[in-house]
Specification:
By secondary structure, the chain is an alpha/beta fold. The chain has three domains: about 1-95, Arc Repressor Mutant, subunit A (Orthogonal Bundle); about 100-170 and about 280-305, 3-Layer(aba) Sandwich (D-Maltodextrin-Binding Protein, domain 2); about 170-275, D-Maltodextrin-Binding Protein, domain 2 (3-Layer(aba) Sandwich). It has helices spanning about 1-25, 30-35, 40-55, 70-95, 110-125, 180-185, 210-220, 235-240, 255-260, 290-305, and strands at about 60-65, 65-70, 100-105, 130-135, 150-155, 165-175, 200, 230, 245-250, 265-280. The strands form two sheets. It has an eight-stranded mixed sheet with strand order 4-3-5-10-6-9-7-8, with helices on both faces. Helix 7 (about 210-220) links the parallel strand 7 and strand 8. It is rod-shaped and about 110 Å long. InterPro entries: LysR-type_TF_proteobact-type, LysR_HTH_N, LysR_subst-bd, WH-like_DNA-bd_sf, WH_DNA-bd_sf. Keywords: DNA-binding, Transcription, Transcription regulation.
């Protein structure tokens, strides 16, 4: 092991001069090799003499018409020309491979499940030279995710800027499966809701979105006393409603396809809007041209509905 370490250290010490030696041999002249290396001829000559003195062997015979190799010079050239040339070519290929640009999009779990994942393949196909990643959090905050370039989250709907645009406003209605409504025909008024199992999206702390408590209070109904079924995933909330386990709050803009397909039905016509909206934004300081292209693509795609 010590011999290997000594060999590595020795090669590292002389690697630059060994490469210059190969350049001198290839050109056959110190002046031409010095020009390619960006050195003066005296400096190139000095480096070659330093290499010879360090190795304790003459490598070059200097003449008026250029240089020629001594027997030791031939041996060194034969030993190094192949490996070092291959290493230089491999490094050149590595250096010239274009770096894949990446854009990281942050959104909540509900938006990812119902809106982003269905279009994600189209987004990647639109930018084949770009690595696009999707990061999810229940409460997405780009301040807690330093690698994020774009975000989609709930925010005040009236805070539109060139770098933040509203996608759709928070509009909520009560939804259930057709089978559940058929089995519970007495559901017709907000006051009837607490008598049913309420499937809710739970979170730690105060939820920024509309909850069963806020929806019922807005309707003048006391929320206490209702049986609750809680999940931390909105996908689970909707799947449970489709399975007939109770009533759920349906966010229009997320579950429209479920309603259109008949998997879910609006249990009553009352819809509630809030002052919030899903917004698409660029993180300050990360608004590069590639990020902007993805921003504009998403903006146009979600504007289509």
């Amino acid at each position: 092991m010590a011999d290997i370490e000594n060999s590595n250290a020795s090669f590292g010490r002389f690697s630059a001069d060994l490469w210059l030696f190969l350049m001198v041999v290839r050109h056959g002249q110190l002046s031409s090799a010095a020009s390619e290396a960006g050195l003066s001829q005296p400096r190139m000559s000095q480096r070659m003499r330093f290499l010879e003195e360090s190795l304790g062997r003459p490598l070059l015979e200097r003449g008026r018409r250029g240089i020629s190799l001594t027997p030791d010079g031939h041996a060194l050239h034969a030993a190094l020309s192949g490996p070092l040339s291959e290493a230089a070519q491999a490094f050149g290929r590595f250096r010239d491979v274009p770096t894949r640009r990446g854009v990281v999009i942050l959104c909540d779990l509900a938006f990812a499940s119902f809106r982003m994942l269905p279009i994600f393949s189209s987004l990647c196909e639109a930018f084949p030279q770009m690595g696009i990643s999707l990061m999810t959090m229940q409460l997405p905050d780009p301040r807690n995710a330093p690698d994020v370039d774009l975000y989609i989250r709930m925010a005040a709907h009236d805070r539109a800027t060139p770098n933040q645009v509203p996608l759709f406003r928070e509009r909520v209605s009560i939804v259930a499966s057709p089978g559940y409504l058929a089995a519970h025909p007495g559901l017709g008024r907000p006051a009837d809701v607490p008598g049913h199992t309420l499937i809710e999206l739970a979170t730690v702390g105060a939820a920024p979105w509309m909850t069963w408590d806020s929806w019922l209070r807005a309707q003048g109904v006391t929320p206490e006393g209702a049986e609750r079924l809680s999940f931390t995933s909105y996908d689970h909330v909707i799947r449970s409603a489709e399975a007939g386990l109770g009533l759920a709050l349906g966010w229009h803009g997320l579950i429209d396809e479920r309603i259109e397909s008949g998997a879910l039905v609006e249990a009553m016509p009352d819809q509630r809007d809030s002052d919030l909206a899903y917004v698409l934004g660029q993180v300050p300081g990360r608004a590069g041209s590639e990020t902007r292209k993805v921003f504009e693509w998403l903006k146009a795609r979600f504007a289509e509905g």
